[in-house]
Amino acid sequence: AIILPMVYIILASFIDPITLQNSGLTFDFSKWTLTAYERVLTNAQIWTGFKNAMIYSVLFTIISVTVTLLAAYPMSRPDFKGKGFFNVMFVITMFFGGGLIPTYLLISDLGMLDTIWAILIPGAFSVWNMIIARTYYMGIPGDMQEAAEIDGATEMVYFFKILLPLCAPIIATIAMWQFVGMWNSYFDAMIYLNDAAKQPLQLVLRAILIQSQPEPGLAELLKYATIIISSVPLMILYPFFQKYFNSGIMAGAVKG
Question: How confident is the model at residue 119 (pLDDT cuts 50, 70, 90)?
Answer without folding.
Answer: very high
